[in-house]
Amino acid sequence: MSDHSIGLVFGIPPYSITTKMIDDVTSYALKSWNLTEDLHAYNVLAEQEIAFRETGFVRVESRQCMMRPTEQLETSMDLNYMHRIPTIDDMSKIVEVFKEAYANGPDEREAHVYAEDAERYFDVVDPKLLAASSVVHDRITGEIVGVCMISLWEGLPLVYSIAVLPQHRGMGLATAMLDRALTVLEPIYPVLRLFVTKGNQAEQLYRKRGFPPAGNIIILDTPSSKM
């Protein structure tokens, strides 16, 4: 991505992070990298937000972590659709799905961000996780209308991205892709996690599929880099 991120890792409880620690690390990063763009802090815990705000960061968005056990499910999909495992050759079509599916919503990004995320995903994804991922085709047109990409985060599988084109929603495609991921992953991993942006209506779908909030709200903050 074109911006820069900062991660703070200390051998102390997260609530003990002080404004001075954040300020020192931020100042060092800005000076060392000679930034001309914003500096972002990802995955900030709720109890850390005040300290970040006091050093000039402002909230960009909040994400809810949700998690449920994997299990063997009887998966099915509307007969008008078919699914298969994504390949790198699908990348441009996947980017188009993200652009249309996320347009005018809390997860909307610039087109190049979707492309960079998709490229990064295919560069590092483990074959076992790729096997749990899906692209869904319309049987009549052959068009890719849904995508679910599973990655690894902190040693456990994560829904990297999931999207369905607006005109194909309400057909159970997102549910079918999630159920398939839970089933494929069950012999290997105990749980599947995801992050949902606050305000995204998909949160209700995830709750219905057995993904309760896992406790931590993830905060994304950014100060001006021109300090």
Task: Please provide a written account of the structure.
It contains seven helices and nine strands; from the N terminus they run βαβαββαααβββαβαβ. The chain starts with a strand and ends in a 5-residue tail after the last strand. Mean pLDDT is 83; it is low at 1-12 and 223-227. Helix 3 packs across helix 4. It has two domains: 4-66 and 217-222; 71-189, Gcn5-related N-acetyltransferase (GNAT) (Aminopeptidase). The protein has 227 residues and is an alpha+beta fold. The protein has a five-stranded mixed sheet. The chain has a four-stranded antiparallel sheet with strand order 4-5-6-7. The radius of gyration is 19 Å and the shape is globular.
Summarize this structure as a short list of keywords or feature phrases.
single chain; disordered N terminus; 7 helices; 29% strand; 227 residues; Aminopeptidase; alpha+beta
Overall average pLDDT: 83
Element-by-element helix/strand order: EHEHEEHHHEEEHEHE
The largest β sheet comes out as: 5 strands, mixed
What is the number of E strands? 9
Counting helices, strands and paired strands, the structural category is: alpha+beta
Number of helices: 7
- Give the N-to-C terminal Cα separation: 21 Å
**Alpha carbon gyration radius:** 19 Å
Write down the overall geometry. Answer: globular
The total number of structural domains is 2
- The CATH homologous superfamily name of the largest domain equals Gcn5-related N-acetyltransferase (GNAT)
Q: What is the name of the CATH architecture of the largest domain?
A: 3-Layer(aba) Sandwich
Q: Give the neighbour order of strands across the main sheet.
A: 1-2-9-3-8
